[in-house]
Protein: Asparagine--tRNA ligase
Organism: Aestuariirhabdus litorea
Amino acid sequence: NSYTTKSLLAGEIAAGSPVQIKGWVRTRRDSKAGISFISVNDGSSFDSLQAVVPSSLENYETEVLKLGAGCSVIIEGELVESQGQGQRFEIQASRVEVVGWVDDPETYPIAKKHHSFEYLRTVAHLRPRTNAFGAITRVRTTLANAVHNFFYQKGFQWINTPLITASDCEGAGELFRVSTLDMANLPRNEQGAIDYTEDFFGRESFLTVSGQLNVEAYCLAMSNVYTFGPTFRAENSNTSRHLAEFWMIEPEIAFATLDDCADLAEEMLKHLFKTVLDERAEDMAFFAQRIDKEAISRLEHVANSAFERMDYSEAISILEKCGKSFEYPVKWGLDLQSEHERFLAEEYVGRPVVLMNYPKEIKAFYMRLNDDQRTVAAMDVLAPGIGEIIGGSQREERLDVLDRRMAEVGLGQELGWYRDLRRYGTVPHGGFGLGFERLINYVTGMENIRDAIPFPRTPKSAPF
Ligand code: 4AD
Ligand code: MG
C-alpha cells in the first residue's frame, strides 16, 4: 500500500484506505493543539501531500518535531478527506519513519523558500527539490514521450545515430575532439603537426553536432525516420539560448519537399503543445502564475492557429522598413540575429514564423539549391521569446549539384558514403532539427536554457 502522492492527491485511492508514502519533507508546521502538519513531496506531482501527525506518536518529541525541509521520510496512516483548504486529501499519520536527516538545516543550500535561478544553477544537484525544477522535469519527460508517441503513431522509425563521428554536419567548426591520444605525448608527423591518424578511428573523430547525415541514410531506405539524442557544440557563446550539450529531435522524410518539412514541423509542435496542456495542467498553471503570465494562453493560441510562412527575402525587407534600430545590420545576404528573429516572431507576427529560402552562402552544404541559384530550400522556425527553435531544409539530392557545393566549401572524400546516397536511388528528401531545450523554454516561459536541462554544460559551467 505504498503510493505516489500524485495518485493519492488525484483521489485514485478511496478515503479510509491505509496508505504509505515515501518522499522529502517540504515544510513542517506545529499547532498548539499538539499536532504537526508535514508536507511531503516525492516528485510525482506539483503539490505536496500533507500528513497530520498527532503528538501521541512515540517519536513525536524526539524526531517529528525536528523534521525540516529536505529530510526523507516514510509515512503511514489513513487517507482522509482534508478539512483544510487547498487539498482534497491528507494522511492521518500513524507512523513516521525518518530515513535521512538534513545534517545542518541552517546551511541546507535550498532551505529558503525563494532562490534565484542563477543561484540554483550553482546547486544543480539539489535544485530538483524545488517547485520550479520539479515542474520543468515533469514537463521535459512529458515532451520527450510526446515526441516519441507522435512519430510512432505516424510510422516513423527511431534511429539511434552515433555520438562519435568524423563529419562536421553543420560545417561551423564547433567540434569537440574525441581522442585516445596521450595529450602529454602527441604523435607528430614529419612537419611537426599532430598526427591524428594515430587516433582511435585512425582518423580525427569528434562528438556529433547533429545526427542528420546519418539519419538521411536511414531515410533513404525506411522513408520516415527521426533521431532524438544529445548533440554537442563547442561554441563559446554565453547566451541564454546556447548550450554546449543539448538534445535535438531530427526527423527526416523521403519523397518530400520543403513545404512537407514545414507541415511536419507545425503538426509536431502543435501535438507537443496540446499534450503538455492536457497532461501537465498543474505544472503549466505554476509557470503561468510564477514565470510567464502567457505560458498557457500562448500555447493554446499557437496550438490552434496556422503558423505564418515567409520568405527570407520578404523578412529582410520587413526588417529594413520596420523603423526599429537593431544592434546588428540587416541586409540581404546576412544571417538574421536573435533580435531580428524575435522582432519577427514577437512584434511583427505574434506567433511562430517559418522563414524559408535563405541565401546559400549562410547555410550548410547539404541544403538544396533553388532555381534562382542564390537561395537554398532552408527553413527556420522562429518562436516568440526564443527566436530560432527549429532549423531544417530540403536536402540536395542531385549528385552533380551536391558535388559542386561540396567542392565550394572544401569538402572531399570523407563524405563518400553520403554521396552514395545520391548515387543509389536518390529521392527528394528533407527534415529539420528541433532543439529540445529551446522547446522546453518556449513551453514553460523559462528564460535561460541552462534551466531547461538537468545539468547544463556551457563554457563557464563546471561539470559535475
Ligand atoms: O539549425 P541547426 O544547427 O540545424 C541542424 O543541426 C540540422 N542538421 C538539423 C536538421 O536539419 N536535421 O540546429 C537545429 C536546432 C536549432 O534550431 C536550435 O533549436 C537547436 O538545434 N540548437 C541549439 N540548442 C541549444 N544550444 C545550442 N548551442 C544550439 N544550437 C542549435
Ligand atoms: Mg540553425
Q: What stands out?
A: The pocket of magnesium ion (ligand 2) is lined by residues 380, 388, 391 (CB under 6 Å). The chain has twelve helices and 16 strands. The mean pLDDT is 94.
